[in-house]
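Limitations

Structures in this collection are predictions, not experimental determinations, and the ligand pose is part of the prediction. Treat each record accordingly. The example that follows, with inosinic acid as the small molecule, is included so readers can see exactly what is and is not provided: the inputs are given verbatim, and the output is the predicted complex.
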Amino acid sequence: MVAAPPPHPEQPTSQSADPRLGRVVLDEPTLQARVKELAAQITLDYAGRPPILIGILKGAFMFVADLARAIDLPLDIDFLAVSSYGATTKSSGVVRMVKDIDVDVTGRHVILVEDIVDTGATLRYLRKHFAQRGAASVEFCTLLQKEDPAGAMPQLRYVGFAVPAEFLVGYGLDAGERFRNLPYIVVLNPE
Ligand code: IMP
Ligand code: MG
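Predicted complex:
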């Protein structure tokens, strides 16, 4: 057996103590309770017409895992990945498919599962994409929706929480691939 290397001296051992993490917006019990409510609603709405949950990578992976476990229906699960060109903490508005789904959605009831809807560019792109694929129905389920003062956002079937227009991390959401594993959601402090 090779001994594990000692922790790097510059790496903090505790992520929750990272000074970049600001106030908690949604704590773990609040998140988990709402995920169960959404799952119960989906279970009712899709009785007799089993849906395909399609998680949008990577941000939705944790939400999909919790949501799927709480849905009491026969369920197919797949994932796709999209990317906004040149995105940092601002969406570029230009969306492209990076990894497509493996299943055929013809005649199926699709639920696209997002972590957060900000400008709505990802959502509009995917709605158009799935409309051309012969799905019987396409709905969106997003954990978070950023408050939109203009009220210009397309209607979504399932929304977990409306959140302030700040950059958030945790529960799947990242900043430069970090913080996805936090079990709660916090504001990222500006540098
Ligand atoms: P939209 O296309 O502008 O609606 O942006 C949606 C995507 O941008 C989400 O799927 C996230 O990946 C990312 N995003 C938007 N806001 C945040 C945030 O506050 N934290 C982390 N990622 C975000
Ligand atoms: Mg995302």
